[in-house]
Specification:
Layout lengths: L5 E3 L4 H9 L6 E2 L14 H17 L8 E11 L2 E3 L1 E2 L2 H11 L3 E11 L5 E12 L4 H10 L5 E2 L12 E5 L2 H5 L3 H10 L9
Parallel strand pairs: 1-2, 1-3
Antiparallel strand pairs: 3-4, 3-6, 5-8, 6-7, 7-9
Length: 198
């Protein structure tokens, strides 16, 4: 029997690039368009898990997903119990950077994999990140770069922001957009990757 088709339920170019980094290329990409608004009282870890699960369900409902292995993920940036938004405008990005300045925060990566039989498994990876205290000039320069657009928490660790991050504990790739160790382990169990398809 041949290896199952592998579908990535995400339009994120970063997740696709991270998968290729470990030798995995999906057969298809099916963006899962869902409402990512946190529920009242929902903590960041629960939110990351729920969003990954909802993306799997959304992708699974598509006819082309029948019998395929599906990967879905979502990244949540949190300061304490406060979930930071994806920065879509300059005002939001500035507010995120001001909040993160001189503090530690958490990046929670929810990963869901549905195997070819329809069994769904979910994990949440957590990475702690600390920014140095940012000056107004540093925030202005980062805003001018445009790297913050569409990024959870208003920054991209794989870009200019790396120069302001003095400490990280946990998975670096999780902060970029996909915890690769957890993802590879889950995909192997579903028959994708080493011991399965590549």
């Amino acid at each position: 029997m041949g290896a199952p088709r592998f579908i990535l339920a995400s339009a994120s170019p970063r997740r696709l690039e991270l998968l290729r980094q470990i030798g995995l290329a999906p057969d298809a990409v099916i963006p899962a368009d869902i409402d990512e608004t946190p529920r009242r009282g929902e903590n960041p870890r629960a939110l990351a898990r729920r969003l990954a699960e909802e993306k799997i369900r959304a992708a699974s409902s598509r006819p082309e997903a029948a019998g395929a292995v599906i990967l879905a993920a979502d990244t949540v940036v949190a300061c304490g119990r406060r979930v930071l938004p994806k920065a879509e405008d300059e005002k939001t990005a500035r507010a995120c950077l001001a909040l993160l300045s001189g503090r530690r925060h958490r990046v929670l990566g929810g990963v869901a994999v549905r195997d070819a039989k329809g069994v769904v498994r979910v994990r949440v990876a957590e990475t702690a990140v600390a920014f140095k205290r940012l000056t107004t000039a540093e925030i202005d320069a980062y805003i001018a770069s445009g790297e913050w657009r569409g990024k959870a928490g208003g920054y991209a660790i794989q870009g200019l922001a790396a120069a302001s991050i003095h400490w990280i504990q946990g998975s670096y790739s999780n902060v970029v957009g996909l915890p690769l160790f957890e993802t590879a382990t889950m995909l192997r169990a579903a028959g994708v990757g080493s011991g399965g398809r590549t």
